[in-house]
Design a protein that fits this description.
Number of strands: 11
Radius of gyration: 14 Å
Distance between the termini: 29 Å
Order of helices and strands: EEEEEEEEEEHHE
Shape: globular
């Protein structure tokens, strides 16, 4: 399990196990958690499948609620973010195709958030990690 702020991520398949074709991970999002700002995936598409609770994914300005059994597709290049607006913790499955994102991205982001000790994180460092792993932050 990789801790990223208040979220927990568990990789089920990473790109090294699939010859780069897919990465699959579960992630837990506590109610009211501070979550990533809007961003773009430059080199992969992402499909989110709801497992528990409800997450609201805003994709190109349009909100989509993803409850257990629901799915949403996020094409590469689409500006998106997510929130847990409910009172219950949420869990979802993410499927990235190709498998361009891996555990190292989440470990590096987690380390930056840990170093901030609950205060504002180093946004320049976060942006550098994101760009190195094929994501672009959106202001």
């Amino acid at each position: 399990e990789i801790r990223v702020g208040e979220m927990a991520i568990r990789f089920l398949v990473d790109g090294s196990q699939s010859a780069g074709s897919v990465a699959i991970f579960e992630f837990d999002v506590p109610a009211g958690a501070r979550l990533p700002e809007a961003h773009v995936h430059d080199a992969y598409d992402e499909t989110i499948y709801g497992l528990e609770g409800v997450l609201t994914w805003t994709i190109e300005g349009t909100p989509h609620e993803v409850a257990p059994g629901d799915a949403v597709f996020i094409p590469r290049g689409a500006v998106h973010k997510f929130d847990n607006r409910g009172d219950l913790d949420a869990k979802a499955l993410a499927i990235a195709t190709p498998g361009a994102i891996g555990p190292d991205f989440f470990r590096e982001v987690g380390a930056i958030l840990d170093a901030a000790a609950g205060g504002p994180p180093d946004l320049a460092a976060l942006g550098a990690v994101m760009r190195r792993h094929g994501l672009t932050p959106v202001a």
